[in-house]
């Protein structure tokens, strides 16, 4: 008998967490960087530098999913 959590099996729960949970975490990180730039009064160039440096990993992670989708890699 397969164990379910909230009516989903392990694979479905993992897929849900990797799409919606990770997307929510990424949005929260962007909010934190924006709040940091606002509270530090970084200006336009400083804000750009903060977003570039602190969210570059997020861009790479998103690019990986786009490339996998484009090349049909599972």
Structure overview:
The chain crosses the membrane at residues 20-38, 45-67. Keywords: Membrane, Transmembrane, Transmembrane helix. This is DUF2788 domain-containing protein. The protein starts with 9 loop residues before the first helix and ends with a helix. The protein is elongated. The longest helix is centred in the first third of the chain and has 30 residues, at 10-39. 77% of the residues lie in helices and 0% in strands. It has helices spanning 10-39, 43-54, 56-70. By secondary structure, it is an all-alpha fold. The protein is built from 3 helices and no strands. The mean pLDDT is 89.
Brief digest:
This protein has 3 helices and no strands. The protein has helices at residues 10-39, 43-54, 56-70.
Fraction of residues in helix: over 70%
Largest sheet: none
The 3D shape can be described as elongated
- Sketch the topology as an H/E string, one letter per element: HHH
Structural class: mainly alpha
What is the straight-line distance between the termini? 28 Å
Count of discrete alpha- or pi-helical segments spanning 4 or more residues: 3
C-alpha Rg (nearest Å):
17 Å
Protein name: DUF2788 domain-containing protein
Transmembrane segments: 20-38, 45-67
Keywords: Membrane, Transmembrane, Transmembrane helix
InterPro entries: DUF2788
